[in-house]
Design a protein that fits this description.
The complex is a heterodimer of chains A (about 120) and B (about 120).
Chain A: E1 4-7, E2 10-13, E3 19-25, E4 30-38, E5 44-51, E6 57-58, E7 67-73, E8 76-81, E9 90-98, E10 104-106, E11 110-114
Parallel strand pairs in A: 2-11
Antiparallel strand pairs in A: 1-3, 3-8, 4-5, 4-9, 5-6, 7-8, 9-10, 9-11
Chain B: E1 4-6, E2 11-14, E3 19-25, E4 32-38, E5 45-51, E6 54-58, E7 61-66, E8 71-76, E9 85-92, E10 104-105, E11 109-114
Parallel strand pairs in B: 2-11
Antiparallel strand pairs in B: 1-3, 3-8, 4-5, 4-9, 6-7, 7-8, 9-10, 9-11
């Protein structure tokens, strides 16, 4: 199989704090990982694409200084939401593309609530 | 106009019925088409993956792509209550080992199978 995990699954934080979300490919190497956010009853919106060992590519309108992405290894990417605000509350989902294949495998998501 | 249009539903059908889910798109460059299933508060799970036009069958699921009409479908035969979920279509213009290929998602259709 191709299993992707995310940690934490749910986080509640105060406004102004930073939150780090981890995305791990458990049984395969992922040269590319993607970060999405999903608002209730809406589709997935791509935030950024990260390749192992290089800087992430952010989608238009996504602040790279606010959403810090680090793809330090072939099995781990992290998303840090800096100085979180209530409007950052959302469901954040990562996906990983297995090296040498075309398909993306999604993590279970992290629900962020900023008070 | 959105690149990918998908009826958000909700769609309710009785158990055992055939379900038809559809997406239309405007970007003629799309060549790779996917269907994902997303249960509530979970990440999407890849169901079907097709390239270019044609049909693909996997158990109770059949995916159809009509590039001339820019129309894709997912059929579910002998629907079960466990099929109740949100179904997202996704598509891409290119997939490679090196590119930062992006998936464009539909908004998702909420499906409920009534026992």
């Amino acid at each position: 199989g191709a299993v992707v995990s995310q940690h934490p699954s749910r986080v509640i934080c105060k406004s102004g704090t930073s939150v780090k979300i981890e995305c791990r490919s458990l049984d395969f190497q992922a040269t590319t990982m993607f970060w999405y956010r999903q608002f209730p009853k809406q589709s997935l919106m791509l935030m950024a694409t990260s390749n192992e060992g290089s800087k992430a590519t952010y989608e238009q309108g996504v602040e790279k200084d606010k959403f810090l992405i680090n793809h330090a290894s072939l099995t781990l990417s992290t998303l840090t939401v800096t100085s979180a605000h209530p409007e950052d509350s959302s469901f954040y989902i990562c996906s990983a593309r297995r090296a040498g294949t075309d398909t993306q495998y999604f993590g279970p998501g992290t629900r962020l609530t900023v008070l | 106009q959105k690149e990918v249009e998908q009826d958000p539903g909700p769609l309710s059908v009785p158990e055992g019925a055939i379900v038809s889910l559809n997406c239309t798109y405007s970007n003629s460059a799309f060549q790779y088409f996917m269907w994902y299933r997303q249960y509530s508060r979970k990440g999407p799970e890849l169901l079907m993956y097709t390239y270019s036009s044609g049909n693909k069958e996997d158990g109770r699921f059949t995916a159809q792509v009509d590039k001339s009409s820019k129309y894709i479908s997912l059929f579910i035969r002998d629907s079960q209550p466990s099929d109740s979920a949100t179904y997202l279509c996704a598509m891409s213009s290119s997939l490679s080992n090196f590119g930062n290929e992006k998936l464009t998602f539909g908004t998702g259709t909420r499906l409920t199978i009534i026992p």
